[in-house]
């Protein structure tokens, strides 16, 4: 990291709601935090939890823990207590760095004594903020500051940094030393930690640098809205941003209006996000107007980018919106739309980044590689692919075939090597003997002029086995009923793909990183079905 930002010491590294930190200051804070962690016994083999939103503490703590040779364990501050406990137990963290926000602290403070967690380092939110408080406190909804007990378990961030800032050098093998435990797979039982080595993370940064030749080192401003605790932001906003000496514009929580105002105020040039964020920004921008012309490149990832959304966003903002594909297990970037003049194909996530091979394997026999144009499971090889899951030898074994990572995603490669995603294997709807891909239905829904966002899931169906149901959020100021939209779909889908119902909602559920959440809708529908069944039995 030091090497990447040499020469940029006087340039801003971070803007947090108007408070700036230079790269020189950032480096010195990292050294002091690293020394402080080493004084607490942190070193190779230690796990350090970070339970923080996007703020300067996250950036300092992340690089300090890595410099000390420890493994960073990312916690989502919105986890409920049960999830925090499961991750703390599984990862074995001995240190947790968190905020003095009452809600977050209430959950974190239940962990010492029940897990290996020995020390909680508490960062004061007010210390990271500029002086114009009232409005910002409102935004952050953090007027309730935690009362931290007077106990040796707790230590303040200031106290951690009270030292000479001269950490002991640490020797590591970058290929085997685990830099990050990235928890994933929470939708299917207990989450498991993808072990990402220093080599994996640095490789993905170098691959990203190779991919964007138009980037101007030391001159870009990176809008970091998606949370760093998710792998996409960790690499594409933070690690990549730092590697090109960009100024990171940190936004601690997603609020479309705050983001648009931040764009107008700070004039960022790069904007990685998930599709729902771009869509929400468009809605607000219609209303607020304001100049967003500073944006040069948007990098969409994490979920399908509807072709309609890409086109509207580019047309309204003038920002080129490119799409990438990857997962926690691949640090995450594996494919991306080309930036070097090769064509960008509509609906494709592009070509593999350098050093990466994509194989599409037979859904019936994963040892067989499918020819171009045929669908199958996407498998990935490359320097960014994890070595395995922490303490999960069986899952690790099952997630590789002949050395390639099995992604659980269905797709195909065209004759020019472009990857097209079809869907996730577990989202495919088995409808009357046919495979119905929710994404095909979603793309058709996005073509309706009133549709802002859409999710399709499969529900049990007495007649067809499973049948698709669609959930839709409408664009502000438009009107359409579920029946209107069904009528529209008849011209865009085959009979089997037509959803059983289109339900209009004011909003759709999202995951922590902002992706639309099929899981939440499945759970809701399952609860409704159970309730229905209970009523039927009662009346019988
Ligand atoms: P995560 O590990 O939470 O980053 O989730 C990874 C999953 O997100 C992948 O396995 C894909 O199913 C999905 N995903 C990532 N990028 C895209 C994309 N560009 N289009 C569609 N799905 C994506």
From TrEMBL:
Residues 441-515 form the AMP-binding enzyme C-terminal domain. Keywords: Ligase. Residues 2-390 form the AMP-dependent synthetase/ligase domain. Pfam families: AMP-binding (PF00501), AMP-binding_C (PF13193). PROSITE patterns: AMP_BINDING. The keyword Ligase applies. InterPro entries: AMP-bd_C (IPR025110), AMP-bd_C_sf (IPR045851), AMP-binding_CS (IPR020845), AMP-dep_synth/lig_dom (IPR000873), ANL_N_sf (IPR042099), ATP-dep_AMP-bd_enzyme (IPR050237). Gene3D superfamilies: 3.30.300.30, N-terminal domain of ligase-like. CDD domains: FC-FACS_FadD_like. GO terms for molecular function: ligase activity, forming carbon-sulfur bonds. PANTHER family: AMP-DEPENDENT SYNTHETASE AND LIGASE (PTHR43767:SF12), LONG-CHAIN-FATTY-ACID--COA LIGASE (PTHR43767). This is Long-chain fatty acid--CoA ligase.
